[in-house]
Specification:
Elements (H helix, E strand, L loop, with lengths): L1 E5 L8 H11 L3 E5 L5 E2 L2 E2 L13 E4 L3 H6 L1 H6 L4 E4 L6 H9 L3 E3 L15
Parallel strand pairs: 1-2, 1-5, 5-6, 6-7
Antiparallel strand pairs: 3-4
């Protein structure tokens, strides 16, 4: 399974970095998305989800809500059906934009969704 971690970074205290490590641990193929990073945790990073040359099965947002809202059209373009939105990264505007695009917002921690305790990362 392939997962895009949008907002991945090399800061190991950052939730986007923790998500990269959690999904790696669980055997997922991880695609870090960050226009300012060349790689995250030794994995090639992509500037956007549309730049990933593989089918993506899961999407997790680890960016501020106003940034997430700007990414909805890209998510729709790559066929996202649902998107995990980390608590604190959601807003009414983002949730509505996802719904209008036909994408189900999942306002929950994508790390916990795979059975990993983020406090152990």
């Amino acid at each position: 399974m392939n997962v895009a971690i949008i907002g991945a970074s090399n800061d190991r205290d950052n939730w986007g970095n923790k998500a990269v490590r959690a999904y790696q641990t669980m055997g997922w193929t991880v695609f870090p998305i960050n226009p300012h990073e060349r790689e995250v945790e030794g994995i090639e990073a992509y500037k956007s989800v549309t730049a990933v040359p593989y089918k993506l099965d899961r999407f997790a947002l680890y960016v501020p809500p106003e940034e997430g809202a700007k990414l909805v059209s890209q998510l729709r373009k790559v066929g996202a059906k649902e998107v995990f939105v980390k608590p604190g990264a959601e807003s009414d505007e983002l949730i509505e934009a996802l719904k209008k695009a036909g994408i189900k917002p999942l306002p929950q921690c994508a790390i916990k969704a795979i059975g990993v305790d983020p406090s152990r990362l």
